[in-house]
Amino acid sequence: MTEQSDPTPEVEQAGAPSAGLEEQTTTTAADSSDSQASSRLEEEGDIAADYVEELLDIADLDGDIDIEVRNGRTYVSVVAEEGEDRLRELSGADGKGLDALQELTRLAVLASTGNRSRLVLDIAGRRAERAGRLEKLAQEAVQRVRDGEAAVHLEPMGAYERKLVHDVVADAGLVSESEGEGARRHVVVTSGD
């Protein structure tokens, strides 16, 4: 009988036979956790897309649905097909319709998975346009502080929008905080001195 060698290489370091194995296990556990989180976010996107597609069918609207996972969040975008202008109407003139649809979509994900979702819904580029306006607003606030204003108070906005502003301000090397409560919660930009 011939002796067969194990094709799995031993992981061993001099003086610490299990050190390499622990490191390998830790890395594998972290990779597994990242994979599970990514899989969960992809599942959220699929559930959200199905829900939004049903809503579009009920409203007799056409749109292509794109799902993207980035920065630990699921982004679902409904893109208007050529000549479909009615899709923007879902957002509402002030964006409140889009916010309401996003909450309904999050509830659909919660009902299906049992987990709360932080997904972001965009319809016909509305949220992307708003993000561009918020970036410009934040840059203007940064410039006003650099020009000597002690503090610049911005308009009230939701948590996701405040996060976008905080990121722009931090990238510029200044400080921002959220103040106020409920519908009056807003960002204040300062030099941090």
TrEMBL record:
InterPro entries xref list: KH_dom-like_a/b, KhpB, R3H_dom, R3H_dom_sf, R3H_KhpB
Compositionally biased region (Low complexity): 24-39
Region named Disordered: 1-46
Species of the source: Micrococcus terreus
GO MF terms, alphabetically ordered: RNA binding
UniProt domain R3H: residue ranges: 128-193
Bilayer-spanning residue ranges: none
A UniProt-annotated Pfam family: R3H
Source species, domain of life: Bacteria
Entry-linked SMART domains: R3H
SUPFAM superfamilies cross-referenced by the UniProt entry: R3H domain
Name of the protein described by the UniProt record: SpoIIIJ-associated protein
